[in-house]
Amino acid sequence: MNAQDGAAARVFLVDDQPAVLQALARLLKSAGHAVEAYGSARAFLDSGNAAMPGCLVLDLSMPEMSGLALQQELAGRASALSLVFLTGHGDIDSGVRAMKLGAVDFLTKPVDDQRLLDAVEAALACNAQRLAQCSERDDLRQRLASLTPREREVMALVAEGLLNKQVGDALGMAEKTVKVHRARVMQKMNVRSVSALVRLVDRLGPQEPDAV
Amino acid sequence: MSRNAFFQWKQAPSVRISLAGLVVGCVLPLAAIAAFLIVGFYQREQRQLFDQTVSRARAIMAVVDHNFDSTQAALRALATSRMLEQGDLAGFRQRALIVLPELHADSILLLNRTGEMLMSTRVPPGGALPRLGVTPLLARTLRTGEAGVSDLFVGPLTGAFLYTVAVPIERDGVIAMSLNATALPAGLAHVLAEQKLPPSWRAAIVDSGGHLVARSQDIDQYLGHLTSRSTQEKLASGALEGSVQSTTLDGIPVYTFYSKSSVSGWAVLIGIPLGELTAGLRQSLTWLVLATVAALLLGLGYAWAVGGAMVRSVSALVPLARAIGSGQLPPLPRLAIREANALAQAMQEGADSVRRARAGMSESEQRLSLVAEAARLGVWTRDLARGEVWVSDPWRALFGFGPGEQIDLARLLLRVHPDDRAGLEKTLEQAASGEAASYATEYRLMLPDGGLRWIGSHGAVQNDAQGRPQLVRGVSLDITQRKLDERQLQLRQEEVTHLSRVAMLGELSGALAHELNQPLTAILSNAQAAQRFLARPQPELEEVGAILADIVKEDRRAGEVIQRLRSLFGKKETVRQLVDVDALVADALAILRNDLINDGVTVELTPAPQPAIVLADPVQLQQVLINLVLNAGDAMAACPPKQRVLRIGTALDEAGVVTVSVSDDGTGIAPEVLAHLFDPFFTTKQRGMGLGLSICRGIADAHEGRLWAENRLPRGAVFHLTLPLAAREAAQEAQQEAPA
């Protein structure tokens, strides 16, 4: 886990049925989870916990904002929360859609405690992993942000496997100047070899350089 | 006709008596008036005659008095003779003899105060003169000193009846002598004769003593006789004029009129025979009586004849009327009276139409009895005044009474099923009291053989002339088979309604599962949480207690859900009860909650301002509401999620009608669909049977409500369900019973 997310992971529970909400909260608490319960999707969004570490256990069918709508909303906000869906009846279509959108699990009510706890565990692990990935990416982004535009151009071409001379020709600069830029890039990006640099750029994704 | 009226009819006067009364009534008053006029006329005439006759007597009396006056004047003139003054009686006698013829006297005498005769024309001088003594006339002359007339007396010299006129002769202021002239009564006869009185009348001159001096007839016979006693009395009464009824000396009853001289005391009498006085009156009255009697006889005779004609005509009509009454049509008799002929004609025409009507009636009666027999109708009549009941034979068979068995209301009511008895009794009472002019009722009979029979009965009330109920008559028929069929049909309908409900609920299975799932989920999770709490080294018993309480609560909730579903799925007959429409709406929405959420439908509820309580079968109403809500949800399936708004409003109006409106924002209903929306087996859904709305409308109708649909602007459709509001008292009761 990253030091940036100092808060402990919590389980967020959303269900429009108060009795169910309380029972599930009790079950999760009994398993040692920290639980926050909400009567509606809107109440959860308003709490501002969407960006917090943890997982979200939510009912699929709720009035006003359904589970799927909340999932979409969270995706829009680039929340890292992992989702576990609960549904009253086996609605396969909704389950498939939820899973496609990245839900960790899709459980039917009434739900066995072990299945729920396993799912929650998995969701929390997933969340932790996602958060870790995110923090690494943030690190990279910071490094990337410290590059000058010229250095970034040089880095891109180097990562594609071009020689210094070729880079100089492509960018219209002397080979010596390319060398200087390249050394500064390697230093700023904290890599010792070209192959490591290539892996880094790969991890940022193809669109990343444009997005920055 | 009552006994009393019959006697009154017998006592009424006959037409002949009435006509006779009319004739008598007309003639007698006229005769009485005529008699009154006649008597009045005669009385006037008689008064006139009386006056005239008295005047006549007065005139005669005046002539007599004049006669005396002239004699006295002559005697006074003679008394002034110088010879008498000188005492030359012989010369005086000579002088008197000369005057005598002018005086119409018999003789002239001179008397001294003692009545000694000093001179008489009858006795020559020197002859012996009779001594007369003091006569009443002399005494009167000496006393009054005035001239006078004597009554009739017999002359001493002649021995004949005479009267004397005397005048006094004064010497030195003293009456010394009386110079008298004696006259014969015959000298006055001419006075009466000159009057030319009717020969039947009697006239007489009497002296102051009532002796006859002159008389119109037979004076020789009656000279000197006293007149009748009644006349004497009348004359003595002092009145100078008057009349008296008397009888003449010759025996004729007369009415006597008299006039008496105040000077001489003599009187003139005129007697008119009574017969002559009243003869005219009697004759007139006789004629009148004869005329009256004749008029009466003629009138009565005519009345008798006319009355006879009328009696004959009417009597001839009586057998005619009787014959018509008994249904015959006899020939018309010839009648004496035109009106009676017209009446007979009218009776015959009436009889003809009555006979035709009777023929028609018997035809329709036959038809009716045929119909009654064919339909096994029991016909009955109830006489309210006599409290009697008449029933037809089919009626007896229908009600299980034997042919001779007596039937009254109590016996009938005993046959009626105890549950229906009070209701029937009330219906019959209302008819008997005139509250209802007709009625139709259905009730059950407990037959003597133990069987049960349904009877349908229709009654109509007939009022008497005063508008009071007099008769109730009607028909009863066996409707047992119809009732069984109805029951069968009802059962089938219930079956169909139930099946449609089950089918409808099948569509809701997801919702229902969810509904049950919620409490089950809560229970399971709670229980497992409790297990985990208990498994801890230090079990959190407080938490476990709260969990167990929640488990119990959720279990109950699950039970309620099952109960609700069971009533919807159940087949048992439900009873109509007072239900709050908004509570039913809330129930329906609870059942459909999950479906609505899944379909993304938002519900907007507008409950009634006051509780809308109706008398209804809650399960069936629930079925209608669920149907409408499901349809509305289906109608909006294709709409964008934000547009899926379902509105349910409940409203109350002044007329006591509850309207539940379920509206959607869907695509609305196509006109060709709208027309058949409620037809059975009409559906636009692929899976539907097309019974839902048809059954819903049937349920609304059974609740005396309506169910219809219309399109909304700008989009969507609305279904209205109206139901009659339960009576206010009942609704209040319901609220008090269920304040929660």
Q: Can you describe what's shown?
A:
The complex is a heterodimer of chains A (about 210) and B (about 750). With about 210 residues, chain A is α/β, with parallel strands linked by helices. Chain A folds into two domains: about 10-140, Rossmann fold, CATH 3.40.50; about 145-210, Winged helix-like DNA-binding domain superfamily/Winged helix DNA-binding domain (Arc Repressor Mutant, subunit A). Chain A is about 55% helix and about 10% strand. Chain A has ten helices and five strands. Chain A has helices at about 20-30, 40-45, 65-75, 90-100, 115-145, 150-160, 165-170, 175-190, 195-205, 210; strands at about 10-15, 35-40, 55-60, 80-85, 105-110. In chain A, helix 7 (about 165-170) crosses helix 8 (about 175-190). Chain A starts with 9 loop residues before the first strand and ends with a helix. Chain B is an alpha+beta fold and about 750 residues long. Among the domains of chain B are: about 185-275, PAS domain (Beta-Lactamase), CATH 3.30.450; about 375-480, PAS domain (Beta-Lactamase), CATH 3.30.450; about 480-575; about 575-740, 2-Layer Sandwich (Heat Shock Protein 90), CATH 3.30.565. In chain B, strands 1, 2, 3, 4, 5 and 6 form a six-stranded antiparallel beta sheet that branches. Chain B is rod-shaped and about 220 Å long. The two termini of chain B are about 75 Å apart. The mean pLDDT of chain B is about 85. Classes of the chains: A alpha/beta (about 210), B alpha+beta (about 750). The interface of A and B includes residues 27, 88, 110 and 112 of A.
